Amino acid sequence: MKRETLDVKRKEKMTAYQLINNLIAEAVKNLYHQELSEALLQLQATRKDFTGDVTAVMFPLLKISKLSPEKTGEAIGAWIKEDCKEIESVNVVKGFLNIKLTPAFWLKQLQTIIETANYGFYPSSGKTVMVEYSSPNTNKPLHLGHIRNNLLGYSVAKLLEANGHKVIKVNLVNDRGIHICKSMLAWQKWGNDETPQSSGMKGDHLVGKYYVAFDKAYKQQQNELIAQGKSEDEAAKQALLIIEAQEMLRKWEQGDKAVVDLWKTMNAWVYEGFDITYKLMGVSFDKTYYESDTYLLGKKIVEEGVEKGVFFKKDDGSIWIDLTADGLDQKLLLRADGTSVYMTQDLGTALQRFEEYPLNELIYVVGNEQEYHFKVLKLILGKLGRAQSDMMYHLSYGMVELPEGKMKSREGTVVDADELIDSMIRTARETSTELGKLDNIPPEEQEQLFSMLGLGALKYFILKVDPKKTMLFDPKESIDFNGNTGPFIQYTHARIRSVLRKAEEQGLKVELYDALLNEKEVELIKQLTAFPEVIKEAGANHSPALLANYIYELAKEFNQYYHDVTVLKEPDEAIKSQRIMLIQQVSGVIKTGMGILGIEVPERM
Fold first, then answer.
1. Alpha helix locations (H) across 436-518?
2. Each residue of 420-442: b (16+ CB within 10 Å) or e?
3. Better-scored residue on pLDDT, 329 or 514
4. 498 near 504, Cβ under 8 Å?
5. Which one of 44, 323, 528, 592 is most buried, counting C-beta atoms within 10 A?
6. Distance separating alpha carbons of residues 213 and 591, to the nearest angstrom
7. How many other CB atoms are there within 10 angstroms of residue 482's CB atom?
8. Structural contact between residues 554 and 527, judged by C-beta atoms closer than 8 angstroms
């Protein structure tokens, strides 16, 4: 029987996994006269303690071969080795077929990487995705928790863009409510007309100062009432300050000019402060929504739900949905006085966005304490028969904790975002100076590098952790120039760029030859070929951590390579040229990958 083989030109353009996948599919067809389902073929990277590049798991194929795992692996291995000159060797270990590809194959892979424009990025998918992140309150400055939210949201958006999607980055600012009135009332009482200009404080810090002042005075009033014999619950409700704040909120909702004017003034201070912090973090938005504009949007949807019998009205006029059959409870959708709750607003805002944009997915980057809220939101839209429910995804992330414990905004014990960024840059300056890393860099360029390193340390330390996990943030650990840190990767990139500049100064003609690759070079190329798949997987899982840790592994592999292999002093010009081209690609992938994470890498250090 004539064997069916892959076309040679097709082979050259395939990745290792594509090649092995196709070869095994053809082996099964020729040996066992059956088509191989993709679901049955499991491929993985060969473990370091075995010989091979790609490992195929034989156990799922036994129903086709009717042989033992070892016999199946031996038969398929012998077939694909005879069929494909790119396979150097095969071996079978307990039902695992390990396949080693030739250096010539990996050299072709390097050539493909060099010739591929925007390597790692995918063509347009035709899909539009909205990513909502940040969602701050206008009663306090951004803090460490907001930093994780913003960095995660921005990098997920960049990842989705790399996957070929059109991405719309949005912010929903919580600019109304009792918490906003608390800051306003405190400023009215004790502010003495203080402004950001007169105080020299950023606007968001100034407003946050009065939020803390309100809480301090409010607690004092509660304690006084408790001392008079009131219960804690009674004291919380009867304290004069909270009654005044509630009255201010009612006036705001009624459009009282004095209250609305003060609200606009203090919010404007906060927005100016936020803009400075966003710029420092390197994040941006395509559109900003404001709760003061959207909080009434869901009322029509609630009315629709009542008409359909999905919601019910209680005797006091409040409207609810009963989710007990879904394992949840009853959920309030509209208060008895007709005012909306967060759920009302989110129902309206979600549908408004689907009307504004042709969205295929709407991603909410919100902490895991809101998992119940988003579960209910999706459930309600589904019960209303809205197909958009299936397009909504809550990217739930864990909280950021410190060695000292949790943060509390009301008590002023949060780690302020601006102060943290300043301290990271300061620590980068101290660490770099102590290690002598930037001694040969001009002073003005050093300051730019301190900022780049400090922010790189902060961003990488946060993004390398799986979003779903609660994380402990340790500033000192994050700035280390060794280990899995941003500065280590940044220093690696600068090191490669230094080698490339020296090669250019030598007038080296950089070309790709057919020089034989050594094992270290094959390992580097294997890492590089994984980049597009990592981008794809990280995008599908909404997890920048997968990309961050891939870049670290690549940087680590390069440093080992550079320690073991001569580059600039290699006497063979062809080998030297080829090695320069290889590390050039490593530099490019590091820069591209870190860029997706929102992290800059230096040209020199």
1. 443-463, 475-478, 486-505
2. bbeebbebbbebbeeeebbeebe
3. 329
4. no
5. 528
6. 45
7. 8
8. yes
Confidence of residue 296 (pLDDT cuts 50, 70, 90): confident
Q: Which amino acid is at 124?
A: S
**Whether 319 contacts 306, CB under 8 Å:** yes
Kindly report the backbone phi and psi dihedral angles of residue 41, in degrees, each rounded to the nearest multiple of 5, phi listed first: -95, 115
Structural element, H or E, at residue 55: strand 54-57
| CATH of span 8-101 | 3.30.1360.70
Tell me how far apart the alpha carbons of residues 30 and 367 are, in angstroms, rounded to a whole number: 53
Q: At what angle do helices 486-505 and 443-463 cross, to 10 degrees?
A: 130
Q: What is the pLDDT of residues 174-205, one digit of tens each?
A: 999 999 999 999 999 999 999 999 999 999 99
Distance CA 533, CA 539 (A): 10
**Domain covering 428-596 in this structure, CATH number:** 1.10.730.10
497 against 416, higher pLDDT:
497
Nearest to 561 by CA among 512, 527, 601, 596: 527
CB distance 351 to 388 below 8 Å: yes
Spell out the domain ranges in the chain. Answer: 8-101, 128-289+336-401, 299-335, 428-596
Amino acid at 97: L
Class level of CATH domain 128-289+336-401:
alpha beta
